[in-house]
Amino acid sequence: MAPSPPGAPLGLYLHVPFCSHVCPYCDFNTYGGQEALIPRYVAALEREIGSRGAELGERRAETIFFGGGTPSLLPAAAIGRLVSACRVAFDLAPDAEVTLEANPTSVDERYFTALLEGGVNRLSLGVQTLQRRGLRVLGRRHEAVDALAALAAARAAGFTNVSLDLIFGWPGQTLAAWEDDLVTVLGGTTLPEHLSLYNLIVEPGTPMADAVARGILVVPDDDTAADLYETAMARLADTYVHYEVANWARDPSLMSRHNLIYWRNGDYAGLGAGAHGHVAGRRTMNHLLPATYVTAVEAGDAPISNVEAITPETATGETMMLGLRLLREGISERAFAARHGQTLEAIYGPIIAELTELGLLERSPDRVCLTRRGLMLANDVCARFV
Ligand code: SF4
């Protein structure tokens, strides 16, 4: 229930900042051509897990998420070692969700089998699109057939919880091309348990932003992006539960437990280069560069570059901004008061009334949620609270 109560179980986020190359739209903390550092990086991450566990170990952890970058560039044995390190250092729930983001170019059935044996029980496959043109525009090096083969390999290995990431709004994408992606996913021999559909944001400073600024690439306008989003909602409605602005699950038990911790403004430890953590009213950030991170850990130093106390105003704003993204759950008035010690009405009464009047929010006895219209303007509505 959003927001999480104080002291709720933690999530553990483990960042893997390596990619075989950097895609032109990417602004994540990731680096190409640094794979030689992987063995030292894994050892440093193992060490950081141990020291963070010594600080936080009494808090139950219920998820591990290997994000990147491309975590599937790590050998499966290294992933298994890191999962084991988390089990030793933290009070990890026996049924913990352990997710790994995988790139279709770096996986096969054998690799997935080894991951499963190492404790990973959920995969997030970076498919992005099944259109050749889109894959080239996005700078991806795999083909549609590789993405579908990765899903088949995950099934053959025994994974029963697989999510696909798809992107819409890429330069040149047509409605027909997007429908073709959705129809292919829905009509495949195996349906993924979960889908994340992201509207491409052209981030300043990326090569794609440069190409857009120079008129080489043209991204769909807001109306077209809204059409693409509505098309996805309509196509998926019979098969999936749309539970978060960009996320769909076959049923509520298959929602991303790790991401639910973020959306409920819960606590998570961020481990690895550039990882952000949010624990007990403090936000932490680790050194961005993998080499700086590794050097600090090897020297016995905490790899944290920044710590910020989260003020009560920031905490309530983040609860609203994140929790409203949960379409059915929204914000519970009771949970809000229990978490923040003030009522929703006392802090946000006028804003909620205004947005309700505009048809963007709806209020029920213990809940505030986005309306369908609010969903189409979710970023603007959520931004009103921060
Ligand atoms: S694979 Fe993902 S993380 Fe790596 S560069 Fe491409 S978009 Fe960024």
Chart the SSEs and their pairings:
Layout (H helix, E strand, L loop, with lengths): L9 E7 L1 E2 L11 E2 L5 H19 L3 E9 L7 H14 L1 E12 L6 H9 L4 E7 L3 H6 L6 H14 L4 E7 L6 H12 L7 E6 L7 H7 L8 H15 L4 E4 L2 E3 L7 H7 L4 E4 L4 E4 L2 E5 L3 H9 L5 E6 L2 H12 L7 E2 H8 L3 H14 L3 E4 L2 E4 L1 H5 L1 H6 L3
Parallel strand pairs: 1-4, 1-11, 2-3, 4-5, 5-6, 6-7, 7-8
Antiparallel strand pairs: 8-10, 9-10, 12-13, 13-14, 15-17, 16-17
Helix pairs in contact: 1-2, 1-10, 2-3, 3-5, 6-8
The structure holds iron/sulfur cluster.
Structural summary, described in words:
The chain has 15 helices and 17 strands. It is of the alpha/beta class. It folds into two domains: 254 residues, TIM Barrel, CATH 3.20.20.70; 54 residues, Arc Repressor Mutant, subunit A. The chain has a nine-stranded mixed beta sheet, with helices on both faces. Strands 12-13-14 form a three-stranded antiparallel beta sheet, with no helix packed on it. Strand 7, helix 6 and strand 8 form a beta-alpha-beta unit. The longest helix has 19 residues. The two termini are 21 Å apart. Bound molecules: iron/sulfur cluster. The site of iron/sulfur cluster (SF4) has 11 residues, from loops.
Quaternary state of the chains: single chain
List the ligand species.
iron/sulfur cluster
Average pLDDT rating:
95
Rg from C-alpha positions?
A: 21 Å
Mind summarizing the main beta sheet? 9 strands, mixed
The CATH first-level class of the largest domain comes to Alpha Beta
The CATH architecture of the largest domain is: Alpha-Beta Barrel
Helix content: 40-55%
Number of domains: 2
Distance between the termini: 21 Å
Q: Give me the CATH fold name of the largest domain.
A: TIM Barrel
How many helical stretches? Answer: 15
The largest sheet has its strands arranged as 9-10-8-7-6-5-4-1-11
* Helix/strand/pairing category: alpha/beta
Tell me, what's the shape? globular
CATH homologous superfamily grouping of the largest domain = Aldolase class I
Uncertain stretches of 5 or more adjacent residues: none
By DSSP, the count of extended strands is: 17
How much strand? Answer: 15-25%
